[in-house]
């Protein structure tokens, strides 16, 4: 039967069939588009993490610091100076090429306060420096660079597609979840980590694409690159009632150790910030100290997966476990606190394995043959210390379950992770990720800023065209300048144009007698001064002004406190705050 050409045309004209167009339009929604993009991000993140993992393996071989290396293979000076050399390379790259370092802390800040916009060049350079730090012996982990690489991948896809800010936040989260999922072959942990640590809360419209990305990233990393969970001997509860009491004690101890780890890290960071050494050389100094530790206890160098495996398989003595516990905390703090690049999750797991192993060994001495082997306690300790440092108990439970695939200890694992989180939170209010933000003045809870002023930075309110005086000029010039400008204080510069102090009307009144107009400004200026940094919040600076009872602060470079960038006063802060309030009210209405 011959078909009429016109009827055939009408059959193919989709406008004649509204039900088909309606059916297609149901799938053409924003959620469907985001989910489709999440698949792409997951696939790309899996490839990026696989490439990162392979590159790290080759770099370990190149530096000669691969897992399980022996001191007998190298001269002693090599083991000491290799981490220092890696630190020097990282210092050069960080100082001259990277403008902003992120890590998990930076991602939280970016998602919460910066519209999820990150600098891709800085992101991937930081991932590259982490390879140098870890492969040269730095006692850090690969997961934070993996999270950063995934977030960078998500941000890159979002930038190419010109995604709006809200969607960009979701895509960045997709990449971050895919990064941790691919690095550990742990898709559930990847999802929960992003929700629990970076976002701070769960929303259905962001949860689904994050799950999709995490699944596809894991598929790529496991099938193409062979990233698999840790293989250990199975453990179980031997005497449930007796052992739950022991796991209770272990959870509380893990909370204490978590607090020690956080405090040691940030004490080390503060210490290195005060060392009068060029920033390029600080990671090298930290690497040198790590190398000295590694000369005597090489197991603390690098990520330490092989050492964790040995602890899980009951290979260490009680004394060695305790020594490795505290030396790992020290080596980790030196590596990261001096300016090295790397993650905190694996060092937390390492520390927890040593704590749990030591606790289990001691417990077996008191209850021989009636409780599980020390390896079971090492496994639970891993999750508990991570939960305490990151304040992410659910992630701690899931990450241990997924990397070991052992469900038999899920009850004591849950118990210890929750107790560790409670104990560490009672001892120290901030996590290892939010403490750095707090020191900048950011107060972030559940993924949101809790005050307007914590989202306002010094660089947005400071005066950049600053009137200064030379310390070589005399007081007469200063008096004339104060009368002409009606300013009550000026930054003081030395002969090289570097900031050397500040001089105020109060200094003039208290240190200059009548007729001493020829006195040098440098002789009356205050040289031990408080300063502000461009990336600090106005809330932090306002508190400093109030506590010191001063009216202005020079704004300087964090890496060079003699480099004057601007000046900020109380009135600058008040004017910026009022402007921000007006903008928020206008946006509301």
Question: What is shown here, in short?
Answer:
The chain is mainly α and 589 residues long. Helices cover 64% and strands 6% of the residues.
Mean pLDDT, as a whole number? 85
Unreliably modeled segments: 6-12, 584-589
Cα-atom radius of gyration: 28 Å
Total strand segments = 7
Tell me about the largest β-sheet: 3 strands, mixed
How many helix segments? 24
- In order across it, which strands form the biggest sheet? 3-4-5
Structural class: mainly alpha
Q: Kindly report the oligomeric state of this protein.
A: single chain
Features of this protein?
mainly alpha, 24 helices, 6% strand, single chain, 589 residues
Structure description:
The protein has 589 residues and is mainly alpha-helical. It has 24 helices and 7 strands. It has helices spanning 5-12, 18-27, 30-63, 76-96, 103-113, 120-135, 143-160, 165-184, 187-199, 204-224, 240-274, 282-296, 305-312, 318-337, 345-366, 374-390, 393-404, 410-427, 434-440, 475-485, 505-511, 521-524, 538-548, 570-588; strands at residues 444-445, 448-449, 469-470, 489-493, 499-504, 552-557, 560-569. β6 (552-557) and β7 form a beta hairpin. α3 (30-63) runs parallel beside α6. The model is unreliable at 6-12 and 584-589 (pLDDT under 50).
